[in-house]
Structures are given as C-alpha cells and as structure tokens.
Fold each of these.
Amino acid sequence: MVAPVKKNDRKTVYIEDLTHDGNGVAKIDGYPLFIQGALPEETVEVHVLKTLKNYGFAKIVDILKESPDRVKAPCIYFGKCGGCQLQHLSYEGQLKWKENMVRNVMKRIGKIDAPVLPVKGMQDPWNYRNKSQIPFSMTETGPIAGFYKSKTHEIVDMERCLIQVSEADAMMANLKKELMEIGVQAYNEQSHQGMLRHVVVRKGRATGEVMVVLVTNKHKFPQKEAAIELIRKLVPNVTSIVQNINIEKTNVILGNETVTLWGKNFIEDTIGGVRFEISARSFYQVNPVQTEVLYKQALDYAQLTGDEIVIDAYCGIGTISLFLAQKAKMVMGVEIVEQAIEDAKRNAELNGFTNTYFEAGPAEEVIPRWYSEDKEADVLVVDPPRKGCDEALLTTIIEQKPKRVVYVSCNPATLARDLKILEDDGYKTMEIQPVDMFPQTTHVEAVALLELKFVDKQ
Ligand code: SAH
C-alpha cells in the first residue's frame, strides 16, 4: 500500500475508533493514521509525524469538532505515564467504548451474535488498584520513583497516582526523598548498582492491612531498622514489611527470596465473605471491588443449585473456586503455578471448605485425565490468561459436553476465537457481560455463558 500522506502533511480527519494504546484512529483512503489524544467522533486537524507502509502517526494541531465525552484528564502525568490511556474520556464514554469494542470483536472475530450487555462499571472509578509496583531509580539529580512511560523503561518521576491507594502514594512521594537520609541508594538499571529496585505496596481493601515489599539488589540490608521505622512513619497502617531479593539483571520485578523484616508475612482480604491470605508473591486481582462483581457474575451464570460438580480451570489461588464452592456440591480447581495451588488449599482450609479439590498442572492435561477417571463436571469455569484457552482444553470440553461453560476472559479477541470454536461444536453463547476491572485504561474483562445445545449421537 502506498501511503496517501507523507511526513509534515496537514490533514483534517475524522476519528473512527481507539487503539489498545488509547490512540485515535483515522483512515485516509483506508490507510490508518494513529493520533495520540484524539477521541472517536472527533474531527481534528493533524500534522503527520511519520508514515510506514501500512500505517502512520500524526499529532493533533487543532480539534475542530470535540467529542461530547471529552473531559480534562485529572492526572498531571496523563499522556506521559503509560499506566492510563483513557482519562481524557468521561467514565460513561469509557464504558460505552468498551461495550462497543467487545460487541465488534465478537462479531468480527467470532461471528457471535449473543447479546453483549452494558459494561458493569464502578461507582467511583479511582483509587481502585490494591497493588502498585513502583520502580525506583538513581539519576544524576537524585532518586526518582513513579511508573514507566508507555512501552519504555523510562520512569516518570511522580508524587501520586489517581488509580492507586493512598498508601502507595505515600511511598511514591516520600520514600525517595527520605531514603538518602538513611543511606539507601536507589538502583540504577544501566550500572546495576544501588540497593532499592522496586517498592511493591499491597492493600487488603476489606481489612485495611498493608504490605510493603522492598525489592533489593543485595542480600545485606544494613539500614533495615531505619527503613522499617521510615515506612511505619509514612504508612501508619502497614502490617507487613518484606524484603525481596533480586540480584539479577532482569526486567522481572520480584526475585525468588523473601524475608519478612517486620510484622506478618502476608495480608488478609475478603471478597464476598470469603477470606484470603495474600503473600508477597501470590497473584491476586488488583481491583477488589470489581472482582466481586466479576465473580458474582460467574456464579450467577453457573446457576448452581448445590448438586453440581464444577471445574475451575486456571484457578490461581482459588478465588473463583471458593466463591463457587459456597453454592456447589464440589469444586475442582486446576492451575499451573504450584505455589498458587498451595495458597488455594490454605485459603479453602481457612474458610472451612471441605468440598474443594485443587491440583497443580496444565489445565489441558489435568482436566482430560480427570474425565478419564470419571471425575465429570456439570459446569466448567475457565479464566485463562490473555492468550485464551489451550486448544486441547477446548477439545476436551467439546468431547465431554459439560452442560454449561462460564468463560471469564481478560482479552475479548481470544474470547471471541474460543467461543467460535465451542459454537461450531454444540455450544451456544447465551450472553456476554463485560465488567470494568481497570477504569481509565483500555483493558476490558468479560464473562460469557455458554450452554450445550445438542448432543452428538455417535
Ligand atoms: N482465576 C484466577 C486467576 C486467573 S489468571 C483469579 O481470578 O484470580 C490466569 C491463571 O492461569 C494464572 O494464575 C496462570 O498461572 C494460570 N495458567 C496459565 N496457563 C495455564 C495452564 N496451561 N493451565 C493451568 N493454569 C494456567
């Protein structure tokens, strides 16, 4: 394709959509131009920055017709920090865009015509993140801390973040200033020198308990007493201070070794009446308010009467499993990370569940084996990572025919692909309910209900 525009051209364009990065998309004779900060239904005058074979980039010179959903982004770091993409779109506008996006992806990729319901959003779509992983870095002008610019490892030095909890703000804003005084150096990625790499803050929303994890580039931590005192001063409700050691030259945040410096080695939280212990390294959903909405939806779609055997595939620390176990005869959870399965077992015990069974391993291998041992399920719940379900698991579903499948997905594209595979072999998608787990960003979570429509007679 020959680009119909070239660098430094000025054009007036109509914005049709948003990309996953939150950029506006305009098309000139079918050639897409990506424009930072532009919103759907806007007419904007742009200056072309760069053209490639199949697409180009432009920047806004003037907004000629503004979207009725345009708002002033409340965060001063918006556009620099890579965390949020949609703060310039009203929350209602965000929910509307997410609903349309899910509907379009379902049609385009899956040819799915099931109803896509309006997105379940938050009443207060701010300060929802219960976990922040804050990179620290030593620069020529002193230590900085914040979040990365989009697609880079460059830290935007920040004092606060409007989607995280205030305890994480306290760490971000003050720790870097006061660290020097106690003699702790921030890490430098280039030289691999310095002590403090990341600070991870986690909060149990229901309990108010806070864990602060200091990720250090060394085992020895001579200033640890002073650091404990400083953190307790900055975050008075801290209940756990942990050192995690990561001496590798790597982008992976946490190392394998953790030492509790002060307080407990976990925090507790509850979701919908179920208690969870969360340690420094366990996976836990980052928006607890919406997690409850999501799990309730999954439970609702599972339509349990108390007699069902349920399989929860990709179960993590068993959060959905325990939610379902309140209404099922038996729940069997499978998850590839062994530590998560240990956590799931402990959480089941903590809550007094005796109708759960957890096993570590790949879902696509463990579930066929369960079926071969006559451990059959009436309802199957899946919550896979972004890449969707493994094909072997979909084949098992098609062969074993559980009467209902509840599919929890963080990626509408792979959801649509997998729904299509199941629809081609006996299932019908009844309904799709998107849930906004990540306000101000382009991420969307969705739950789909599938029912078995016919049984192959052979
Ligand atoms: N349902 C959980 C976790 C969902 S995240 C919750 O709501 O908290 C997806 C999970 O799938 C992760 O815990 C990941 O470790 C796990 N996973 C990835 N590939 C897997 C596989 N092949 N088999 C089983 N689990 C897998």
Note: Residues 283, 285, 314-316, 319-320, 334-337, 340, 362-364, 383-385, 390 surround S-adenosyl-L-homocysteine (CB under 6 Å).
Amino acid sequence: MTLKGKTAIITGSTSGIGLGIAKELARQGVDVVINSFSNTAEDHGIAKEIADNFGVTATYIQADMSKGDQCRALIEQAGGCDILVNNAGIQHVAPIDEFPVEKWDAIIAINMNSAFHTTAAALPHMRKRRWGRVVNIASAHGLTASPFKSAYVTAKHGVVGMTKVVALETAKEDITANAICPGYVHTPLVDAQIPDTAKKYGMTEEEAIEKVILERQPSKAFATVEQIGGTTVFLCSDAAAQITGTTISVDGGWTAL
Ligand code: NAD
C-alpha cells in the first residue's frame, strides 16, 4: 500500500522534529497540515515550500496546542486525517520545589493534554476512513527520568500511557497508535538548552554538548529530524500494521544503559 494521497496532521510542525516529519511524509506523497500557534507569513511559507518541493497539498492551520478547544478545532478544520502526529512540545528545567506553576501547566497542556484532544477528535474520522495511524512524539524521558524536568518527564510518561490505551481501544480496527521516543535530536528546543548548560558547568558549548547533553546518549551523536521522520513513515507502512501500543526508541542507546 502506498501512503500517496493520505492526509497527515502534524502538530507543532513549523520547526525541528515536526517539520522533519512533515517533509518525510510529504516525500511519500502524503498531503500534510502544518501547525503552530504563531500564524506568521513564514509559517505559511513553510507549507508552500513543502507543496512546491514534494508536489503534495500542504496547508498551514494556526491552533494553540495549549488550548483543548483549539486542538479539536485543528482536526475539524482539516476535515480529519489519516495520520495524526502529536509532536508539539516545550521544555522548562527547574528543581520541582522551584518549578513555576505556569510552566508546569503549559508543559502538561502542550506536551500531554493536546494529544488527548487531537486523538479524540481524529479517531471518528479515521474510523470513517477505516484506516488510521496515531504517532505520538514522546521522548527517552517518556521511559526514564532526569532531575529538574518534572513536568516534561510527567507529560511524556503520560503520553506513553495514553498511546497504549488508544492502541487497545482501536486494536480490532486498521488503526494503530505508537510513540517514538527520541533521545537528543539537534533542534531549536535543544539549541536553547546549550548556552545555559555551558554556563552552569563552566564549559565551552562543545564540551557541554558532549559531556553533559549527550552524557546519557552512548552514540555521542544527536539523532536527526530525518531519522524521526523516517521512523514515522515506517510506523505508517504496511510492515508496521501489527505494531501498536508500543514505543520505538531513537536514542543512540540511551535506554539500553
Ligand atoms: P522545536 O522547539 O524545534 O519545535 C516545537 C514546535 O512546537 C514548533 O513548531 C512550535 O511552533 C510548536 N509549538 C510550541 N508550542 C506550541 C503551541 N502552544 N501550539 C502549537 N504549536 C506549538 O522542538 P523539537 O525539538 O522539534 O520538539 C518537538 C517534539 O519532540 C516535542 O514534543 C519534544 O518534546 C520532542 N522531543 C524532542 C527532542 C529533542 O532532542 N529535540 C527529544 C525528544 C523528544
């Protein structure tokens, strides 16, 4: 079966991993819906560039993934989808007793609750089409923990749990739900952590990358957005039709430690 002509909605896809996934799906002929909350000319330009480069339909829809009603509206405005990639996510690092409440609430809303709302809205459309793929971008932090990332680790573990429930509720249909658990991928989200990490440990940024950020990634190399995109394409393929309710780590050996 070809993925050509299927439609995918990728949340938070104007940058980083989401954009990488959108491009790899478009490369397979999938029509893509690009999303962020900012609604700039650049956001619309990203969709146009994908349409031009891959010969697919690519549209931009603004929706704030911290708001449940906007998550659901994104799915309805797109007319549903065959492939739902829950990718939007943010990070904040602080000890739990100093963790700002508004950061906790935002991380839980964007990184976890949004997947509940989009999945709930998308499943009826997938059932009508008798085919669907839900791909949740969790994290190595959906399987393990690090200090100072309480909200992120909580949200990502929650997403892994939600993935299993969705898989069980759709097990007898041609719908699967899985989570990809990347280790460190070089994206703006990680870039933003490098200067602070270097400052905190009194290191150069290069040393901070190898000794601190990639400390737990045995390969000592970042995963790429193309690799996460390729893993998403695999999960949408016929070969993965019986893979459901599980996680795939793309983490250079992190979770083998
Ligand atoms: P990024 O900052 O490059 O991209 C995040 C995307 O989410 C952007 O398109 C942004 O516009 C969007 N976004 C943020 N808040 C939003 C909101 N309220 N509504 C709609 N869109 C919103 O980040 P990334 O590194 O590409 O991360 C993408 C996902 O991958 C996240 O869920 C992240 O937790 C996960 N992840 C990243 C890494 C990594 O090393 N980069 C590792 C594991 C998991």
Note: The pocket of nicotinamide-adenine-dinucleotide is lined by residues 12-18, 35-37, 64-66, 87-90, 110-111, 137, 139, 182, 184-185, 187-190 (CB under 6 Å).
